[in-house]
Structures are given as C-alpha cells and as structure tokens.
Amino acid sequence: MHPPGNGNSCAEVGQRFIISIYGTERVFSAVDDCVHVRTYVRDLRQIWTCVRDNNNQFGFINQRTAKFFGRDYNNDLLCSAGMLTEMEYLTFIKLGSGGYKLSISVDARLLQVQLKPDSDAIQLVRVGASSLTIGLHQLDEPVFSRFEWVIHGRFARSSAPHYVSSDEDQTMDMEAVNFLVRYGITNIISLNTQPLSKRELLLLSCHEITYTHIAVADYHSPTPDEFDAINSSFKNSDTTLVYSGYGHGRTGIAVSALQLYSGRRLCHADFKANFVATEAQFDALKDLKEKLER
After folding, report:
1. Per the structure, how many domains does the chain have?
2. The pTM is what?
C-alpha cells in the first residue's frame, strides 16, 4: 500500500500528512515514545497534522498519540512532547529532484534525519552527512480547513465545518463532531452569519460541546458588546475553537480580540498576521485596544 500522492505536497497548517522515505512505502510512525519507519497501512500512528506556534515555527503532531515529532538531547527523534518547543521545530527544504530534506535545529545548527544503522529508528546527523530524502503526502481535506492552534490545547481557529465558498456551506455533522472530540474542543465561538440548526445544536450538546453564535457579516466586525460576549464565552470554557466562514478575516479579528483581552499588547502587524482583512476590522481592534488600556 503506497502513501497517497507523490510525496511533494507542501506543508500547510491544519492539514494531515504521511511522512515517508521518499519513493518508498515506508513511513514515519509513532511507536511508544519514539519515531520508527514502518510499512504504510494508514494507521493513525502514521498520520501527522501540521501546526504552527506564535513564533511562526512549524511542527507535526501525531493523530493517535497527540504528541509532537521532535528530538531528545541525544539527537534521537521522539514522539513524546506534549507541546511545541524549539526541540520540535521542523524545517523542510524542497529538493529539485523531488522530496525534501528534513532538519531540526540543535544549538542554532540544522541537523538532518537519518536511519540508525541496522534499525528502523531515526536519528539526527550533521548537515553534509548522508541523510534521508523525505516525502510529504497530504491526506484528504479535513472537516475544519485551516485548523490551527493559537494556544495549543486551549484555543484554536479554523474555517466553518465543511466550508466550500460561503457561510451557508457550514454543516455540523457527526464527522465534524468527531473532529472536535478528537482535538478536545469543548466550546465553539462562531462568527458565521448562519446559526446552527436545532439538530446540530443537540448533536453538540450530546457531546458536551457548548456553542456561542455571534453573527458577523463577511468583512465586518463585532460590536463592543459582541467582543465582550466572545471573551466571556472563551473565559468560561476549557478548550475553544473560533471559526467564521473561510477562517481568516472575522476569525482573525476574534483571535486578536481574545489576545487583547488576555493582556497582549498587539500592533497592526500582529493583527495582520492573524489575517484581519479590512480597515474597518483594524479600526475596531484599535478601539478595543484603547478601551482595554483605559
């Protein structure tokens, strides 16, 4: 069974991947707390989700163990970390001949991955030594496109479930709920113009997921009272997912607002990095920032 695609997919936050030895059926698999190479069978231990932290650094979290691909102090590769730190930052360098070189930073140096001699375990070697060519194989589009942790395990953002091109596309079905449960989401803040149906709300309630709906038109902003309601919903929950339609402009303004409420001193560039889209949205955040500083 060969991994899907040719192994030249681009790493994209929120997407799921198989990581292979390029051109083969052997893929990276979480085995206990280690990373080994196994024949591809599409086991959850072989599926990795691409994430990014507030430092704009990328990592991969395993679908089965919810642990991050990273290294230890002996430069062996592990899958044991519960959070993304410098020891889990990954760098993929695309090769003209196909595939990638995969590196991890060690003391400001990039070390590349290689199989241990006579073993299926993986280790790091210095740049210039013989190293593996890695394949990245993107799996199907997830239910919540552009899913990304803002604060890992506490606060995430994404598109609406099953988004295609408009707010009306949203469907909170069992597949979407299973996704939420898998990631430990217990609260949703939706800025989509469309509310969920009674049937969809019941489905969430049966899985103990709360839901706050604040209808905001595309490219527009919440009112001051709505900003307060977003913050109240977030504070009264354990793990929140914020979404709108596509998952940028309105989601970005909600993410920025919650960061301001938490005490972060954001600037225009920070709002832009959160994908705030319009001048009106920038102005609304500026007003909220001034209000909170007062």
Report:
1. 2
2. 0.57
